[in-house]
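hey so u asked for the seq, here:
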Amino acid sequence: LDLGLKERSLSILTSALDMCRELQYFTDRVEQATLLRKRLLQERDIEEALLRAIASFSRYEIEKAIAGAVALGYTSNTCDIARLKLGKLIQCEHITGALAEAISKRNVPLLAEATQQAEGADMCELPSYNEAVELLVKLRKVEEIKTALRNASHSRDVIQLNDAINQSQGIYNGEDYMSAVALRDDILKRSGVDERLQSAINSRKRADILAVLDEAKSLNLRNSWTETAT
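ran it, structure tokens below
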């Protein structure tokens, strides 16, 4: 009994208490050993519950096991590991939620922040992280293309417009793209009318000049060539 109490050994206490029952030997020492054995059994159960919870990767199971340890006032390395694991799981849930929100909103700043959080927490193995990174790259590319389309539209330069439109192929076909295509086509149409006006003026044929002037009127085109043709 003394050895079991001193060593806090469950096996020694169990053997000693079994002998005490056989001998019908009851003392304060026996009662003390009985209480300690009960305590050690509880600690063993908690330790096993902690190990199972850690292996389960379940936040609920780990929280429940830690609560049992706290209620008993039990501490151990396994408790510390469980708390670390719980903290990691909570952090993982937070980051996974942030990634999911950023992906659903297709928001570049949110995606950048969520992916940085995942990288800082060493959680790049999450499937949603890879999805978020791919979407972030795509959205940033779309923003670059939108800027190029707007700049080209502002410049009204056909070569620049063509370059921006070609970059957009298969990536972006939104409002800025449609506006740039319409502007390019309009500029090319007007340029073609100017060329035909010059040719008609040089031919000095009334029918040719009237035909091209009608085309210019439909485009609301007024410039030095339309004045000369008129």
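Residues 28-56 form the longest helix (29 residues). The chain has eleven helices and no strands.
lmk if thats what u needed
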